[in-house]
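From: lab user (bench 3)
To: helpdesk
Subject: output format question, protein + fe (ii) ion

Hello, I'm new to running complex predictions and I'm not sure whether the block I got back is the full result or only part of it. Here's what I submitted:
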Amino acid sequence: MGSESSPKLPFLDFSKLELSSVGSSEWESLKSQVREALEEYGCFEASYDKIPSDLRNAFFGSMEEIFELPLETKLRNVSDKPYHGYIGNHPSFRLYESLGIDDVAVTEKVEAFANLMWPQGNPNFSKQTHSLVEQLSTLDMTVKKMIAESFGLQKYMDEHINSTGYLLRIMKYNGPNTTDTEVGANSHTDKNSLTILHQNQVEGLEVQTKDGSWIKFQPSTPNSFIIMVADSLSAWLNGRLHSPYHRVMMSGNEARYSLGLFSYPKADYLIKVPEELVDEQHPLLFKPFYHKELLSFFYTEVGQAAPSALHAFCGV
Ligand SMILES: O=C(O)CCC(=O)C(=O)O
Ligand SMILES: [Fe+2]
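Helpdesk reply: Thanks, we reran it on our side. This is the complete output you should expect:
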């Protein structure tokens, strides 16, 4: 059972790319790799060296520190949006714990979070988060720009940039401490537009392929990130790219730490399939909708029971 034979997600190297080099041969080559990978898998592994290892290590250190805080402190992380604040002690997912910082590109939001967690705030944590989010949101926009160009939708980029919000979520999955594998996070598709995931050395993320099999994500380098299409982007693209099902399966006794930068269309942005993507071969698949409404629907009983909340909510 050598790992050589296990299927792997496509690996794309963003480290060599000058992210401003739109139109260069490197850009064009990476853009077609992005399109190909996303058409097949809805996601890919990106190596990205703009986040130095000391920043990465410091941030994972802060994450460990946060999860070790008393429960009543972590419970201060509340949000009016579902699944955006503290989650822990979930009856079905005993291994999982997470906290979220919404609007994380706004400095004051990070500071407000730090002030909730630490009595005197934590300028180091705020600085780390700022640098991390700056680099990851650049990566998010770069990939979106490539996708838009590839579908001839450049003219929509400005409105996208102006209407994008970012949620940063930090996650911890305890090892089950048994010989069995246990679900850390159930199979789901993300509801936002594009997700960027990063983890420590403990594996567990699995992505479902079109034929229904599961690929275990094994990072090729310490600076690997998973970039994944989520429902709102898939719908905007009239289903031309899909949002893959993924889950976290845990074994062993080591804790897995991961972080996700979830970009989403802001509350007042109506997601509407561009006319460029609708023709006889590609009939309109989704009615216009707001991301926040999709999110609320997903957490209703009907939304939870639907095989695809996206299709149930706004499928034509
Ligand atoms: O922990 C991970 O790598 C995945 C988390 C995830 O899928 C999510 O939060 O939506
Ligand atoms: Fe997810």
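A quick orientation on your result: The CA atoms of residues 62 and 125 lie 7 Å apart. Let us know if anything else is unclear.
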